[in-house]
């Protein structure tokens, strides 16, 4: 309510791979309960940005603050504590292949948070129930559909009690008919007040959910604003062009 | 008929003692070797650069020196610097370290075959590197490495016969002594060979059983039945 400190604040992140500047100084803020969506062409640095925010790739420059406190990523304990607070959903799910759905969700609370097994189990079951997979708890990743895998991965992240969720194209590896079930779960999270940063190509979904959309290209945030403005009335030519293209695609497919 | 009686009364008890000694060599060497292999395999993929280097050198030397030369060094070489090992200890140390070097390669390969995303997912949940390696990566890698590790266990059963060369008298040693004494090389070495075959068969069966037990749907070997 009166809480003015952004949950997550990213300041001037830069990242290069050799001569290839992938991120050229990206800054953004996420307020509690806020949902921001990043769109933009492939290779524009969206995915790298999310990986950088979780320190899954090292930053060349830039600062990251959680609840106003800067994260010093080479202090290991601070880093692992931070990552527990920042849930990450990957494009290709990255479920632990050797564990069934229940244990995928359970292992974080047990091994990282050191919760007693019974408590962690209860929590894991509840999270799986929340994503509608209670009946699939004993299945291994190879036995689940893509949509189910992504829902397990969401449950796995939720079981750590994150304050922010980073979602990296959560539905782009899915068959079209499976996208809906994942969107439903994300929508459910949104209505529960989860703070989220979502990278997606699903502009229709994005516009119904986001309070702000960032258009990112060539390692920079080119334009940002409310969904209606970015998608239908962008100031920058490139944004308009991209949104027109992707919008056409979206209309054709649905 | 005489022949059979002779084999049963004179040869069998001696060979049995040899088998027992072989087992006493093989089992601890297999366990230590496997453990050494896991640790050095992990170091080689996820260790600090210094550990990585050391583990690499370990594998280089212990795969590079002939095993017999290694055994000679442990047993005949070390007394030069004042360390005296019993034949049994020299053999177990030699086998464990040599076996470990090979296991290390299987584990390393298997760790490298685990998808990068598994580690990223573990990190993103707040796992430290060590915890991620032991809770997430190794359980997957071990399942992939097991057929290779099994191969190494089976080699070990057979190269345990080299212990004879540092005067640790196991199955092959007993066989040689008996064969020389009774001048019955064909019979006795055929029996000795058959006993190794039986041991290898038992190990193979056990390894297959283990592979089935830890099989996971969609992971490496499919679970039949």
Description:
The complex is a heterodimer of chains A (254) and B (225). Chain A is an alpha/beta fold and 254 residues long. Chain A has one domain: P-loop containing nucleotide triphosphate hydrolases (Rossmann fold, 3-Layer(aba) Sandwich). In chain A, 41% of the residues lie in helices and 24% in strands. Chain A is built from nine helices and ten strands. In chain A, the strands form two sheets. Chain A has a six-stranded mixed β-sheet, with helices on both faces. In chain A, a hairpin with a 2-residue loop joins strand 9 and strand 10 (220-225). In chain A, helix 5 (146-158) runs parallel beside helix 6 (176-191). The termini of chain A are far apart. Chain B is mostly helical and 225 residues long. Chain B has a single domain, classed as MetI-like fold, CATH 1.10.3720.10. Chain B is built from eight helices and no strands. Chain B has helices spanning 2-46, 49-64, 67-77, 87-113, 116-124, 129-159, 171-182, 185-213. In chain B, helix 1 packs antiparallel against helix 2. The longest helix of chain B is centred in the first third of the chain and has 45 residues, at 2-46. The interface between A and B is medium-sized, with 31 and 22 residues.
């Amino acid at each position: 309510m009166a809480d003015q400190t952004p949950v997550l604040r990213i300041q001037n992140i830069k990242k290069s791979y050799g001569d290839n500047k992938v991120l050229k100084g990206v800054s953004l803020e996420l307020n509690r309960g806020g949902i921001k969506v990043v769109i933009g062409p492939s290779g524009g640095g969206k995915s790298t940005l999310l990986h950088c925010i979780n320190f899954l790739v090292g930053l060349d420059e830039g600062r990251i603050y959680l609840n106003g406190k800067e994260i010093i990523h080479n202090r290991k304990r601070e880093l692992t504590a931070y990552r527990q607070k920042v849930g990450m959903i990957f494009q290709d799910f990255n479920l632990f292949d050797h564990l069934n759905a229940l244990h995928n969700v359970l292992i974080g609370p047990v091994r990282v948070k050191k919760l007693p097994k019974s408590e962690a189990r209860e929590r894991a079951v509840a999270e799986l129930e929340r994503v509608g997979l209670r009946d699939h708890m004993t299945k291994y990743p190879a036995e689940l559909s893509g949509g189910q895998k992504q829902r397990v991965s969401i449950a796995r992240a939720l079981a750590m009690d994150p304050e922010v969720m980073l979602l990296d194209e959560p539905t782009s590896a899915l068959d079209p008919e499976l996208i809906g079930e994942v969107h439903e779960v994300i929508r459910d999270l949104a209505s529960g007040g989860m703070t989220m940063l979502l990278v997606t190509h699903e502009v229709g979904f994005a516009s119904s959910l986001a309070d702000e959309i960032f258009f990112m290209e060539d390692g920079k945030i080119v334009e940002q604003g409310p969904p209606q403005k970015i998608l239908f009335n962008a100031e920058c030519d490139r944004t308009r062009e991209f949104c027109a293209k992707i919008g056409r695609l979206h209309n054709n497919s649905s | 008929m005489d022949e059979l009686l002779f084999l049963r009364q004179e040869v069998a008890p001696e060979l049995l003692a040899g088998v027992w000694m072989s087992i006493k060599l093989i089992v601890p060497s297999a366990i230590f070797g496997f453990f050494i292999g896991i640790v050095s395999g992990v170091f080689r993929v996820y260790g600090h650069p210094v550990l990585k280097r050391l583990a690499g050198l370990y594998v280089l030397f212990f795969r590079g020196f002939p095993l017999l030369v290694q055994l000679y060094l442990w047993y005949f070489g070390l007394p030069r610097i004042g360390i005296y090992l019993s034949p049994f200890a020299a053999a177990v140390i030699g086998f464990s370290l040599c076996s470990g070097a090979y296991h290390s390669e299987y584990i390393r390969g298997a760790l490298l075959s685990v998808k990068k995303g598994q580690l990223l997912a573990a990190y993103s949940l707040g796992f430290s590197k060590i915890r991620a390696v032991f809770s997430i990566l190794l359980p997957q890698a071990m399942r992939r490495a097991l057929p290779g590790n099994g191969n190494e266990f089976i080699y070990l059963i057979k190269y345990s016969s080299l212990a004879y060369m540092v005067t640790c008298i196991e199955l092959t040693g007993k066989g040689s002594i008996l064969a020389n004494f009774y001048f019955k090389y064909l019979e006795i070495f055929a029996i000795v060979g058959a006993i190794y075959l039986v041991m290898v068969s038992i190990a193979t069966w056990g390894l297959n059983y283990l592979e089935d037990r830890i099989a996971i749907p969609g992971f490496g070997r499919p679970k039949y039945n």
